[in-house]
Amino acid sequence: MAALRDLDETQNSKTEDQASGSSTRSVHGGTRRKKAFNSLHTPIVQTATYTFDDTQDLIDFMENKTWGDGDSREEYGRYGNPTVAAVERKLAALDGGEDAVLYASGMNAVTSVLLSVLPSGAHIIMTSDCYRRTRQFCQTFLKRFGIETTVVPNGDYEALEAAIIPKKTRFIVSESPTNPYLRIADLEKVADLGRKYRVKTLIDSTFATPINQRPLEWGIDFVIHSATKYLSGHNDLLAGVVVGSADRIKALRDARGILGGVVDPQNAFLLDRGIKTLGVRVRQQNHNALAVARFLESHPRIERVWYPGLESHPDHTVAAAQMSGFGGVVSFEVAGDLKTTSNFIDALKIPYIAPSLGGVESLIEQPALMSYYEKTTEERLELGIKDNLVRFAAGIEDTDDILNDLDQALAS
Questions:
Q1: How far apart are CA 376 and CA 115, in angstroms?
Q2: Are 234 and 269 in contact (CB under 8 A)?
């Protein structure tokens, strides 16, 4: 217990974090040993504003911005909250960063980083197969501010380097794994290009989680998660987080006070509770997804399976080198058309039809009808979305039950 006590009472020493396992960090990382009222859990500080004892207390705050015990304090809820700050410390410890900043959603995290950092007239590079709403924001909203976006194919690092405009390109934005084809970025190559041309690098690591992948250790500047997904793990809250160096995160936290994308303390408490079981949940989801991928790849009614844990995946070698687990999402193509694929999904008994992922329940969706319903088959194909494509997000159910359910649905 002495080692855990030391871990809890420090300000997330990088050496101590690296010496601890991911599940230990999920439970104890960044957590103060001594909390208000000797509470085991971080209390919910449900307030929008904070008071001062007297004028001298106000002056002391303005000069050093701290409570008596050295913790950061604020005067208004938009600038900070003790419950939120506790979760930020835990998330920084999990990803091996110096600091983290929470936002109201994953999209709010992405948009806030770019709005806070990019000047008018800048240029950014995105890899294809990034989340469609991130692409939409960069190619539509940022364009209004004179910010141009170049999209390059996943895995083509020559094209990525060629797209860099010296002194104008400010960001390389990618996901790893991507959605829905689970492409894996070579983080070392991306980071090297960023350093070579002095371009900031940002990786959305939502699908991987800090259990399977820690991009900062490969030299990436910013890591983003939709905390709604695996970090929360229960499909009951919206939140996003950015992790990085202390100076970069401080600038983002200051900007959050202006942009206003704050997390309320109740959601922060729920997120903290979910993170504590992150390690055990993700390992079961890794196990289930790999079993599903292997089962589907050998099934005659499946045309193709996309999962980085399979040797058939185009990025399997990179994934095996930089990930400790391959994630809980499997994408695959059913042998048949739009209707046949829908019939298969309707025959399943365990997964819910839903657009998210990362929770304890298995979820399934047909992207052509969920995220791209308003587009024609031809328009979807231009974006790489086939009518028979399915995305399965594994929960923590028993593996055999999931496989038997898939088997009966394919047979029907």
A1: 32
A2: no
Q: Could you say which DSSP state residue 267 is in?
A: H
Find the DSSP H helices in 169-277.
187-197, 209-212, 246-259, 265-275
What is the distance between the alpha carbons of residues 212 and 102, in angstroms, rounded to a whole number? 21
| pLDDT for the residue 4 | 32
Nearest one of 275, 210, 220 to 244, comparing CA atoms: 220
Measured CA to CA in angstroms, residue 258 lies from 112, 142, 253, 262 at distances of: 10, 18, 9, 10
Angstrom distance (rounded) from CA 263 to CA 283: 27
Please state, in angstroms and rounded to a whole number, the distance separating the CA atoms of residues 116 and 236. Answer: 28
| Backbone angles phi and psi of 285, in degrees to 5 | -70, -40
Where exactly are the structural domains of the chain?
A: 2-275, 279-411
Tokens, residue 115: 């709005």
Task: Please compute the mean of the pLDDT values over residues 176-181 and round it to a whole number.
Answer: 95
Measured between alpha carbons, how far is 242 from 91 in angstroms, rounded to an integer? Answer: 9
Is this model's pTM higher than 0.85 or not? yes
Backbone Cα Rg of the chain: 22
Token reading at 156: 């083509």
The whole-angstrom distance between residue 75's C-alpha and the CA centroid of its chain comes to 30
Question: What pLDDT does 307 receive?
Answer: 98
The one-letter code for the residue type at 295 is: F
pLDDT greater than 60 at residue 190: yes
Of the candidates 99, 129, 186, 204, the residue annotated as catalytic is 204
* Residue 315 a catalytic site member: no
Residue 8: active-site member: no
* 230 classed as catalytic: no
Of the listed 131, 181, 230, 372, which one is catalytic?
131
pLDDT score at 29: 84
Largest CA distance in the chain: 75
Q: CB–CB of 176/213 below 8 Å? A: yes
Which one of 25, 89, 229, 281 is the catalytic residue? 229
Q: Does domain 279-411 have CATH number 3.40.30.120?
A: no
CATH number, span 2-275: 3.40.640.10
Distance CA 325, CA 331 (A): 16
Return the pLDDT at 355. 92
Known catalytic residue at 204:
yes
Torsion angle, alpha carbons of 190, 196, 200, 205, to 10: 20
Please state at what angle helix 82-95 crosses helix 265-275, rounded to 10 degrees: 30
